[in-house]
Amino acid sequence: MKLKRLLPRLLVSGLLTLSAGSFALAADAPAKVGDWPQWRGPNRDDLSKETGLLKEWPAAGPALAWKITGVGIGYSGVAVTGGKIFTMGDIGNDSHVIALNEADGKQLWSTKIGASGQYGGFVGTRGTPTVDGNLVYALNQHGDLICVEAATGKEVWKKSLTKDFGGGTPQWGYAESPLVEGDVVMCTPGGKGGAIVALNKKTGATVWQSKDFTDGAHYSSLIIETLFGQRQVIQLTAASVAAVAVADGKLLWQAKRPGKTAVVPTPIFSDNQVFVTSGYGVGCNAFTISKDASGYKTAEAYANTNMINHHGGVILLDGFLYGFSDKGGWTCLDFKTGKVVWTNPGVNKGAIAYADGHFYLRSEGGKGGKGTIALIDASSKGYVEHGRFDQPDRSDKNSWPHPVISNGKMYIRDQDVLLCYDVKGK
Fold first, then answer.
1. What is d(CA 119, CA 20) in angstroms, rounded to the nearest whole number?
2. Whole-Å CA distances, 364 to 104, 211, 350, 367
3. Which residue of 16, 86, 252, 264 has the lowest C-beta tally within 10 Å?
């Protein structure tokens, strides 16, 4: 009898619990194919899997869906996932990580990371937040790394790359975007204590620091790959390109590769070959990675100045590399050989993104520059444009944030302004 009397209560209680749980799940929209949860997208290769986008742009460019201000000063990009947009910026005396509503850009929350400020004359944040489930990781220009709740912006934990891990701030400040793998979040404080650090993503506790890889930090972000059955993170510095084991931070392989002034672009890896490039006349290098009984080996596949990419990024697609070279303009290279396939001045120096068979190019503009944005074929056959327009609401700063294409929209960040364009096919 007691059990019979309890059953209705248990059922009601269970239904209420289920309803509450369902409501909580509904509060954050599920991830979509076109979501962009971190720097250079889901796989850090700047390749969107979205389809059904515009193949040609109108003369004035795609339609502007919305425009907002108030995202702060700086050069940070955007992450888009779960119905929200995440970015960073300096607002007053503080740097902030910010969440916006994906539908209309309205601010949902803003959380202080640390102090605002400049390095080398450039004010504001540089990196892009990384979203992993209901947690967001953001690194400001001073090396303050924060973890917050995606739903509310509530701080979960915070660390300092300089104070906690002995990092040395690069000349133009930290510009890296954190990388999450399994239970850890990784980034690059640089220095004698260990170039790369892995932290428990939920608590911030140190899991390891790469004691035998101690290059100073520059401006590139980590990528993650599986080589010969071993999960490893690859980083480019001003001294070398190297990989450490995700499990314990042990140095697995390292190839000397001196850079100059500022080494920025993210490395690219495919088919046991890693490609790196940087500006100031250095150019590009490719290294073949092999392994035998004695361990990993590196061998230089090529070194040339066919791709001198300063900071706009390079994309690997179907065996070819695409990006802007200070030497020849917009350039297509053969990934395996490093030979030039085509060059074109295009929209001048800038950043690149890929979606649905096309590249989206954004000119860096500069003071008084137009910040032209163009749509071209993603093809090794040549440079073919399908529309261009000049960015409205230009600041007087370089338009360095890369374009992001997510869920039928193109996001263009220019300091305190964020523009959202509708690029979905009609």
1. 47
2. 26, 37, 5, 9
3. 16
- The distance of Cα 183 from the centroid of its chain, to the nearest Å, equals 19
Please answer whether residues 201 and 184 qualify as being in contact, where contact means their C-beta atoms are separated by less than 8 angstroms.
Answer: yes
Q: Are 249 and 209 in contact (CB under 8 A)?
A: yes
SS3 content of the chain, % helix, strand, coil (to 5): 5, 45, 50
pLDDT tens per residue, range 308-328? 999 999 999 999 999 999 999
DSSP string, 117-186: -EETTEESB-S--EEETTEEEEE-TT-EEEEEETTT--EEEEEETTTTT-----TT------EEETTEEE
**For the domain with range 32-422, which CATH number is right: 2.40.160.10, 3.50.50.60, 2.60.120.10, 2.130.10.10?**
2.130.10.10
Phi, psi of 156 (to 5 degrees): -100, -50
Element (H, E) at 6: helix 2-27
Does this model's pTM top 0.90? My answer is yes
- How far apart CA 243 and CA 223 sit, in angstroms, is 9
Tell whether the model's pLDDT for residue 390 goes beyond 90.
Answer: yes
